[in-house]
Specification:
With about 650 residues, the protein is α/β, with parallel strands linked by helices. It has a 5-stranded mixed β-barrel with strand order 13-14-15-17-16. The protein has a 5-stranded antiparallel sheet with strand order 20-19-18-21-22. Strands 23-24-25-27-26 form a 5-stranded mixed barrel. Helix 9 packs parallel to helix 10. The N and C termini lie far apart (about 145 Å). About 30% of the residues are buried. The chain binds FE3-S4 cluster. The site of FE3-S4 cluster has 14 residues, from helix 1, helix 5 and helix 9.
Amino acid sequence: MEVIVAKTAGFCFGVKRAVDEVYNQIRTGRKPVYTYGPIIHNQQVVDELSAKGVKVIRSEEELSHIHEGTIIIRSHGVPKRIQELMEKSGADVVDATCPFVKKIHHIAEEAGKHGDVLIIVGDPDHPEVQGIMGWTDGEVHVVRDADEMEKFELKPGSHAVIVSQTTYNKRKFEELVDIFMKKEYICNVNNTVCSATDKRQTEAREIASKVDAMVVIGGRHSSNTQKLYQICSEECTHTYFIETLVDLDMKPFQSFSRVGITAGASTPKSIIEEVTLMSEEMNVEENDFEKMLNESFKTVHNGEVVEGTVIDVKPDQAILNIGTKADGILTRNEYSNDNSLDLTTVIHVGDKMEVKVMKMNDSEGQTLVTYKRLAAEKGNKRLEEAFENGEVLKAKVVRVLNGGLSVNVEGARVFIPASLVSDTYEKDLNKYMDQEIEFKVIEFNPRRRRIIGDRKQLVVAEKKKAQEELFSRIHVGDVVEGTVKNITDFGAFIDLGGADGLLHISEMSWGRVDNPRSIVSVGDKIKVLIKDIKGDRIALSLKFEDQNPWLTAADKYAAGTIVTGKVARMTDFGAFVELEPGIDALLHVSQISREHVNKPSDVLSVGQEITAKIVDFNAQDRKISLSMKALENDREADEPMQRLEVPADALAGQDDKDE
Ligand code: F3S
């Protein structure tokens, strides 16, 4: 299989300059280092920078809280007002706006000074366009396409200045300018489409038109990569859009004889090289007999492991004598995944190293070698053993990807998909970064770069073991300690260490509970009573028998006692009155008043405090009956007696008269 890699693939001048500046500030700048917006549309690079402490400022509001460190303006640029805010913040400001974009800012600023109307051809939502808009004080319009340009009108006598977004299609920009010129306005046209974009698109179209399959590498949200994908798809039906090698299924590639590769302006070289190498390795696997035969005449072959002696080291590459006419070149990317590693700190002249030959290039006197991949192969052997033996491995998480985790086992990478990280859905995988985790290898296919790990099965097995241990230990009636894990409207789930039990709202107190959150909070450690166990379901309770209010109720609520309580709820036949938490008494509708009451809610309301007489106490059924009517009757019976009460001295006087 022939692999054609676009010369224009990957970082453009402006993006490379901005990314290099971030690494430079990581080494030398005031900390913390910030970028205003993600430095590029590439999650892998953004994640890697985040791991090195680079923070992303996502809004003007966030910017207002920053008063130290270094703020880097990315290649898209920012509006003038934002730049001024940065300069006043107290942090150092490093302007990595691409010089081509800066030139447009200058045109915009001049247009504003002369009272000219600025027309930007581009996407109004793109940060570059928003940045340009913020450099003119005058009238500004963004025109997205030919339709909008047809409808566009200016006030008579206006003078216009036209610029384009740098990544706009050159041909389309010219079409829009033609439409505008027909309107006969006075205007000054500046074609600011970046030639890097144009060249990248032209080359991608050219390659796509002559290959069997085309691979476009770049961030899903990168507009220039999306555009490349669209162009390549028009020319080649087998066009694949991938972010990293992990997204690429190599299976269909066995039937292709020519494959093209291009990449968006935000795609790091290392990812392009990985995909290229993988495609080239397919060559060897295909047993291209003729090529193998040719290579057999060389002193060393692609893929051969050789020992070399380091004869020179620079921060980004080392040169090795590998015993052939051409020296071995070991680049930083082929030594480590750390893009900022200074090789002089880890490799020294005279060191002996085992490396693998990647590519012979005698015409330029160079042989590209890799240390990283050889280490990965050794790691692969370890992974293969672990896969065959079902061994549990422990390794560090080195990258958090969109769809899972990447762990490093002796230089080899294992991908653990998000669905296999845990037994529950993990919203944010970042907490695993740099953590050592255990897992099993469940798929080992290094040829297709599919080495898949599974942590979930270990978590499930561990929980099952803990669950079995818990069920063998607990019995109905036991009091155990647990932690409140989750609260719902109907109760709370308590983690008992191996399984969760349900503490239903009705079991939270002897009294009435309206909201479980008024009794427990997530994280509380509480002692609970095991009320019931059915299969793997455990019912819990906080109604401990020694606190049961009915134990002392007979003393407090004997028939004839006058009590006060609050109406807790009502039915058509009566009202339930809470005498104390856990003890409700029934006030039957017929016992509310001596007058006829149709239904309790006609004369009572929930929460109302009432006084009544206990007319029945049934200890066996735990029922208490109240009567307000009886109380009224008692009062009336007392009243005539009170009316007949006569002072003693008056009675004495009467006796005298009688005498
Ligand atoms: Fe600059 Fe052109 Fe890249 S404008 S950021 S070099 S696409």
